From TrEMBL:
Keywords: Repeat, Transferase. The keyword Transferase applies. Residues 1-97, 104-211 form the PRD domain. It comes from the Bacteria. Pfam families: PRD (PF00874). The keyword Transferase applies. Residues 216-283 form the PTS EIIB type-2 domain. Signal peptide: none annotated. This is PRD domain-containing protein. PROSITE patterns: PRD_2, PTS_EIIB_TYPE_2. GO terms for biological process: phosphoenolpyruvate-dependent sugar phosphotransferase system; regulation of DNA-templated transcription. One of its GO terms (molecular function) is protein-N(PI)-phosphohistidine-sugar phosphotransferase activity.
Amino acid sequence: VKSEIRSLQKRHSLYFTDETFENLLLHTLLMIRRIKMKQPITISPEEIDAVKKKKEFQWTFACLKRLEAVFAIRFPEEEAVYLTLHILGGKVRYPFGKEGENGLENPLLPKVVEYLIRRVSELKMMDFREDRVLINGLKIHLNTVLNRLSYDLSVSNPMLNDIKKMYPYLFHIVIDVLEDINQTFSLSIPEEEAAYLTLHFQAAIERFSYGKDKHKKAIIVCHMGIGMSQLLRTKIERKFYQIAVMDCIAKADLADYTARHEDIDLVISTVSLEDLSIPHIVV
């Protein structure tokens, strides 16, 4: 199952976070168990018809077809739809320059991102409109949010209370702007997402004080979403001016990345790493 999900990512240029990859793996294994116990999921015909029109359904269906021979089962259409919904609502990260390559952009995304950046800029009295790292990060994150809302997929944020305490003023600005966005675009973006968005803006604020003279090249291996990765990146570069963080990647991509980038001096990770010759530290 793990191999098939990795193949799905490579085949269609999908870049799941480690968290989303593990969730998809778990949902697929639970799906196999449900089918073997003859307890398949039930999804409305209307929702099935809507999801079947998406190319992601065809990708998922083909992936499950290859697993049928392995587990000697047949995946019902409803289960393929169910897994497709989780792919559409999954958190993704993109390598630099790859943003939006797979064409999964929600039609509301440009308007929501523009509104959010403009209003937070006004309320915070800082101009975020030229920060490409922020813009790309918000596009990736909010595209996932809008897809989740479209299919009633819930989200949890174990850092919600911590973020409220650490960045109360910025969090309330984001909450106020999201209330306007929800009303303007008939959405219901929850405070869990407001907390994640707060991390994006906090990282942007801290980038203003970056030093330009960097000597050591580092990468960050982070199992969480792009917001936390970027915040960790800015905090490291702010505190250690001699370190230039080249990229934020998933653990699964580490071996391939270091093989292609032999000039990396240091790996900073939020998860334990095995068999790595490059100097590394877990934070």
